[in-house]
Each structure stands twice: as C-alpha cells, then as structure tokens.
C-alpha cells in the first residue's frame, strides 16, 4: 500500500508556510535549547548572562540522577503513566466501538455527556476529587492517581477513536457477526489492527499529558516515596536558592521518555493524521 500524505499546499502559500513553520520551530525549540545549555553549566555560571556554557559539565546529569533519586521517581511515573494509558486505550476503544457499531437508545445523549469531560479542566475538580479519593481509600496512592488520569483521558480518547471507527464500513462488522464473531472479537481482532494510527495518536496524547501532569499529582500524593517525576523535581526548588543547573539536567532526563515514545510511534501517528485528513 502506498504511503498516505497530506495534500500539498497551494504554491503561492508555500513561502509563507515555510517561514511560519521556521518561526514556530524557533519559538518551540528555544526554551529546550536554553534548558539544555543550563544543564551543562556550573552553579556559579547559571546566573551569568550567555547561552553557551564556558566549561560544559556533563557530570551534572549523573549528579542530578543520584542526588534527586530519579530512578525511583522514574519508576513511579512509569507505573502511573503506562498503567493509565493502557486502561484508557482499552476502555475508550470499547466505548467508541459501542457508540459507532452497536446502536442503542440514548447513545448520542450519553456521548454528549461524556464530551463534557473535554471542556471541564481538571483543576476545577480538585477539591471533589480529593474528598472522593479520601473516601475510597485511594488518597496518596499511585493506583488512585492513575485511575483519575484514566477518567480525565477517556473523553478525548473516545472522541478520537469514535471519529476513526465511524469511517469503517458497517458491512465489515455485519459480515464478522454473521461469521459468528462476538463484539469483543470484532473489536480486538478486526477493528484494532486497522486502528494503529488512532491508537498511536491516543497513546502519544495520553502519555504526554500523564507523564507531565503536575496539579492532580500534587494534590493526590503526599508521601515523597510515591512522588512522580514532576513532583520530585519541583521539590528540589528551595525558598531562597536552588541548584538550577541540576534541576535543568533532571528536567532534560525527564523529557526523554516522551521523546522516545513519539519516536517509536511517529510513523503510525503521522499515518493516522494523514488518513483522518483524507477521509475528512
């Protein structure tokens, strides 16, 4: 099968798009380059002007890893993020399949209700969530935090999968039913292999959101032994002074998993975006 590509822009708009893309890249990459440069500086040099370090210190990364206990923080973040992403993908795929391929009364109203989760920011529900987690015995619990991430990730994930499943011919599903397949078999053996682009999109979005999430983790986790990376790095900020070069090094290390996930799923993600654009 030939590779899908987005339609080319009209020739007269290409220079403007090129310049716009270049400016956007500069805006996005400048903070990253600044943090990387800061991570290689000495403690004294962090407060001096200048982008490039005069005496690069790659050992800052080793010192940050050991001093801040990044190994345990990585493990905590991985457990919460990977667990929540897997559950989110499985539940949202099942929900989207039901909304598109299993007609039932009130499906549109239920889907509209689910979409309310897209427009309600998590910070608006912090107090009710804290009370609920305490009542359920899930406060200061990584599983409880992962469950909250799943709840907030379901609306947008279901929306993505529903848009893809709506393009799959109903005749394909009916033929599978006539062959004796159950709904779960149709979903996981027939539909899921066709939805690699949508799955990659959801995995990248949810991994990025959950790995970098701070507010909910700050409210729902109390014991430092269970802190995620965002909380652990934030805890290193002092009231009067901080080792900014080590914090920058820790931040660069923390960003690596997101980069690697995108690198692995990049092809499927771009293909999913292209397919969605063409089908639209």
UniProtKB/TrEMBL annotation:
GO terms for biological process: transmembrane transport. Residues 74-265 form the ABC transmembrane type-1 domain. This is Carbohydrate ABC transporter permease. CDD domains: TM_PBP2 (cd06261). The chain crosses the membrane at residues 16-38, 73-97, 109-131, 143-166, 186-207, 214-233, 245-265. It is found in: Cell membrane. It comes from Devosia nanyangense. Its main location: membrane. It holds the Pfam family BPD_transp_1. It is a multi-pass membrane protein. One of its GO terms (cellular component) is plasma membrane. The lineage of its organism: Bacteria, Pseudomonadati, Pseudomonadota, Alphaproteobacteria, Hyphomicrobiales. SUPFAM superfamilies: MetI-like (SSF161098). Keywords: Cell membrane, Membrane, Transmembrane, Transmembrane helix, Transport. Belongs to the binding-protein-dependent transport system permease family.
